[in-house]
Amino acid sequence: MKPICFIIIIFACFTSSCYKQLNEDMRSGIPDNYLNTPEGFNAGVNSAYSYLRAWYGNQMGAQLTVYGTDTYMCGSGELALDAYNFNLTPGRGFISSPWNDLNLAVNACNAVITRAPLVPIAEGTRNARVGEVRFLRAMYYFLLVQTWGPVNLSLTETTEVTTVAHRTPIDSVYKAIIADLQFAIANLGATTTEYGRITKPAAENLLAKVYLTRAGTTARQPGDYQQAATLAKNVISNYKYQLLNNFSDVFAQGSGEKNPEVIFAVQYSKNVLTNGVGNQTHLFFIMSYTSLPGMARDLANGRPYSYFRPTRFTTDTLFDKAHDSRYERSFVTVYYCNNPGAYTINGKRVTLQLGDTAAYFPGREYTAAERNAVNYTVIAPSQYNQTNFPTLTKFLDPQRPDINNEAGSRDFIVSRLAETYLVAAEALMMSGQAAEAVPYVNAVRKRAAKPGATAEETAANQAAMEITASDLNIDFILDERERELLGEHHRWFDLVRTGKLLERVRLHNPTGAPNIKPFHVLRPIPQDQIDKTAGGISAFPQNDGY
After folding, report:
1. Sorted alphabetically, which InterPro entries does this protein's record hold (predicted)?
2. CA–CA gap between residue 330 and residue 506 (Å, rounded)
3. In terms of Cα–Cα distance, which of 397, 422, 428, 423 is closest to 410?
4. Residue 52 neighbours by CB under 8 Å, 6+ apart
């Protein structure tokens, strides 16, 4: 049992009733003053946390951040978000569902914050819980403003049906986000005895990312980059977090999830009563390995939905495979037979035994002679397609109860120290301090160096991974972020933040390249929101281009 159980209980319907939507009032029989009691207040805080699962560990958040970028494109997922085509419209569920969930999350936070002064608990406890919830409200608004631009800014509880809404300029939204995080920093402790609760360094870490992001918008303020650098450096230097020695260990399941690199994670559980639909990210990055000779679905290799497939830029160019361990530690390169039998492979009849190599991804082209010399399937880069591609291993969940179960139990890492190093580096570089940024990049890269057969070989690989100030520019930072953070729900935001979305999609994503246009740096406002707002499109305008 995890210390905090994030369950969307009936109370969530009460706190989130009809936020800016003409929906039926669903408060049921819960009395209005329940939230004013210690029990109700605690339930309200947990409800505010629970909405994190609507984005992290869910298809909706993954779709809006992973593909349609330079590093991932569509496998069998929603093509419109990758192709930027005529189906990317305001009426689609993959646009309206996350919009609604995030706005409901905001109102759940507003309810807790509004009622907190009425709750008879110790002031220190009250302020800490409000600090947690203001962090959450900041996070939800940060996702909203990055995805849709100007959004309705509401900082008080909505308890009745309303049709009044307007799009608040992004500078005001960012000011509200920053104020919430500053309150959280002032009222949260550096550590927590209840694993999963938000801490002061988690708030500092998010605020660093907020300043870094705002600096790339029309709402930018002098000093944003320096503020981001200062906060990120403080998280690195003054708390208990540390980079693990082995990149793979960051994604260890079970007890390994609570490692000193993780700053904040969304919790999931093996308890079916608290896990809901579970963390489903394990489904999205897996190739259709069950079509390979000698392979059948199993727990170790996962249930293959094949939504996201890496671009050739990711598989062929992004990684220095001679010195950097992260490609081999991020992708499946070999499938071992779990379905023994006789098969025709490379035009010849072969028998595969349990544990034999069934398929190999060499990362280069194979000659006919090389293929004929082996008794397994070889999938070279030129053969990658919508179903055959290297599988990202970060999110695999072999601890599910059976091969068909979709409800994963591993936590979703939202923020970890390696990204904090890269935030510090980017902020320093963008504020003209490239030389100071270099050690932060090198710390991440040296950790990723391939271990050698000897200490000398390991040292040589580490030396090869180090960079100098002359190597550092925004493209290098973007590449390094994906070498480290590939698939972790950052990329679309990273490309928009740095003004590189169009350039990089056109260079590296053949699906999106023909159609992407400047207006695609924002998603369409859901048509349902516009239709149900008094005044319609004049009161709640659509984003340009949609």
Report:
1. SusD-like_N, SusD_RagB_dom, TPR-like_helical_dom_sf
2. 25
3. 397
4. 6, 105, 136, 139, 266, 414
For residues 141 and 207, the answer to whether their CB atoms sit within 8 Å is: no
For residue 527, give both structure tokens.
Answer: 């048509």
Buried b (16+ CB within 10 A) or exposed e, 126-154: bbbbbbbbbbbbbbbbbbbbbbbbbbbbb
Amino acid in the structure at residue 385: N
The structure's pTM equals 0.94
Task: List CB contacts of 288: < 8 A, sequence separation 6 or more.
Answer: 304, 306, 387, 388
Q: Is 262 helix (H, G, I), strand (E, B) or coil?
A: strand
Where residue 328 falls among pLDDT bands split at 50, 70, 90? very high
> Letter for the amino acid at 185?
I
With DSSP H G I counted as helix, E B as strand and the rest as coil, what are the percentages for the chain, rounded to 5? 45, 10, 45
**464 within 8 A of 446, measured Cβ to Cβ:** no
Using an 8 Å Cβ cutoff, are 116 and 41 in contact? yes
Place of tokens 């608290």: 274
> CA–CA separation, 430 vs 399, rounded Å?
42
Which CATH code is given to the segment(s) 10-280+525-539?
A: 1.25.40.390
Question: Domain limits of the chain?
Answer: 10-280+525-539, 288-392
What distance in Å separates the CA atoms of residue 505 and residue 313, rounded to the nearest whole number?
11
β-bridge mates for residue 264, sequence order: 415
